[in-house]
Amino acid sequence: MLSFIAAAVLLPQDAGVAQPQGQTPPQTAASAARKVAVLPWCLKDGTDTAVETARDTVHKIFESVNYEVIPEVRTKSVWEEDLGYPALKLSVGGGEAYPDLPPAKQLLEIGKKMGVDLVCAGRAKWHTKSVWVSLGPKTKADCTVDVIIVDVAKEEVVLDAKDVKSDSTKKEHALESFGTLFISGGFTMVSGGPKTPHQKRAALNAIAKATEPWVQTAAQSRRKIG
């Protein structure tokens, strides 16, 4: 299970204090937070737990650089109901078609509609195999990720990562660079057994590797006041 090691401090507004007429109320930490709309990723051939891990990982990456993630159910509703775009496929398996990512222009449109700073869309697919070795079955999973991030105010694509692949046996520098963001305890690199732990590790590796260029830039732009 992933653990996010961070504390978000929200400064409450003073209850019952009237603002002078015509004066804008002071901005709270919550209202000042940068926001990102994440279109639900399409995930192919993953176990339920691996799928949940992948979605959780995407959210935690944005939270690690102080972005508030808009609930995906709201983003999906705006996409399908307000903008009238085709329904988003959340998962596919077997021989089902693997949908393309939405074009950047559509991501910019929903970003402006929702008033957010960033919009992210992505997809991931797994390939898992088990082989028999002298000590028993050995399982290996790999995960391939495509992800695009659009900066709404700048009207720019700030990340466009395609076919980023990693597997459950690797130690990705990208994952290690997140430091306290993730704890992937309970996974033994050489273990066999069920495929879920391997798919989880592969997803962590691939998503971290794909988003690392943007995360590094976002982290560098942060600075303390004072």
Task: Please count the beta strands (DSSP E, at least 2 residues each).
Answer: 7
Low-confidence stretches: 1-31, 183-192
Share of helical residues:
25-40%
Give helix and strand order, one letter per element, not per position. HEEHEHEHEEEHH
The largest sheet, given as strand count, sense and whether it forms a barrel, is:
7 strands, mixed
**Shape type:** globular
User: Structural class of the helix and strand makeup?
Assistant: alpha/beta
Instruction: Compute the CA-based radius of gyration.
Output: 20 Å
| Count of individual helical segments | 6
Give the overall average pLDDT.
79
Q: How far is the first residue's CA from the last residue's CA?
A: 37 Å
What is the percentage of strand-forming residues? 25-35%
Description:
This protein is α/β, with parallel strands linked by helices and 226 residues long. It is 32% helix and 26% strand. It is built from 6 helices and 7 strands, in the order H-E-E-H-E-H-E-H-E-E-E-H-H. The chain has helices spanning 29-32, 48-64, 72-82, 104-114, 173-177, 196-220; strands at 34-38, 42-44, 67-70, 91-92, 118-133, 136-151, 156-167. Strands 1, 2, 3, 4, 5, 6 and 7 form a 7-stranded mixed beta sheet that branches. Strand 6 and strand 7 (156-167) form a beta hairpin. Helix 2 packs parallel to helix 6. The longest helix is centred in the last third of the chain and has 25 residues, at 196-220. The radius of gyration is 20 Å and the shape is globular. Mean pLDDT is 79; it is low at 1-31 and 183-192.
